[in-house]
Amino acid sequence: MENQSDSGAPPYGAPQAPISQGEPARMGPLQRIFGVLFSPGETFADINRKPTLVSPIIVAMIMALIGTVVFSMRVKVDWEKMVRDRIRTQVEKTGGSMPGEEQIQQQVNITKMIGKLSPILVVVGTPIYYVILAGIFALALMIIQAKSTFKKIFSVVLWSGAATGIVGTIIVCASLMVRDTEGLDPSKPGAVSPTNLAAYLPTDIPKALASIAGSLDVFTIWFLILLSIGFAAVAGSKRINTSKAGTVVFGLWILWVFVKAGFAALGLGG
């Protein structure tokens, strides 16, 4: 009887390919946070070697929670006035009639409840938001024939969001601590963050224009640039460079900006 190989493979079977263990990550979570901010090319190359999800999700959730708590402490929102003003504006725009007091009060109560639950909602909603965002970009990258995985794309989105979220949260919180927040309406673009164009425009401009201006935010643009660099790093194809990835990223963002502006023009948000 012939001796069988040590691997236990059948004598006439095809030889088994060696299992690739993959190159380990060279950066820890803290190094990746600073790396995304200051040396994104090198950092995203490391993320391509070893994509991670838990650390950036935790960071993003903590930043969202801190921002919400500081906002709640510094800004006493008049939810009832905000809801009534919104209903009145919609009625004037559509030419309809004001709903009954009971219906208005129901909307006020719901809005107040959402405001009270906002710390919980942002913690739960943050990972959901990033999953959806990563899914959209994964589909777009698949269309341009990227040879990546959802985990790598998701990791790029998370690390980009976590890194810019830290800086953005610090700036927004600092702004809320030093400014007069009396009468601040969080539903208006530019009311909370001083880093977007809407914060420096008159409040009576058309809602669609205010929505577009609110989208032109320093940290949003920074986030999109990081995504472009990161997606090029994990695309798995030399044909997809930063420029091509950026075309996809900014193209989808511009589409969303105009869709959002359209809803704002109809009085459905902004």
Notes on the protein architecture:
With 270 residues, the protein is mainly α. It has one domain (52-265). Helices cover 66% and strands 0% of the residues. The chain is built from ten helices and no strands. It has helices at residues 29-38, 40-49, 54-74, 79-94, 101-116, 118-143, 150-178, 207-215, 218-234, 242-265. Helix 2 crosses helix 9, helix 3 (54-74) packs across helix 6 and helix 9 (218-234) runs antiparallel to helix 10. The longest helix is centred in the middle third of the chain and has 29 residues, at 150-178. Mean pLDDT is 84; it is low at 1-21.
Average per-residue pLDDT, rounded, comes to 84
Please report the number of helical segments.
Answer: 10
Rg estimate, integer Å: 24 Å
Which stretches are low in confidence, meaning pLDDT under 50 for 5 or more residues running?
1-21
Q: Determine the structural class based on helices, strands and strand pairing.
A: mainly alpha
For the record, the count of structural domains works out to 1
Topology as a string of helices (H) and strands (E):
HHHHHHHHHH
- The total of beta strands comes to 0
Instruction: Report the portion of residues in β strands.
Output: under 5%
- Helix % is 55-70%
The biggest sheet, with number of strands, parallel, antiparallel or mixed sense and barrel status, is: none
Distance separating the two termini: 78 Å
Coarse morphology:
globular
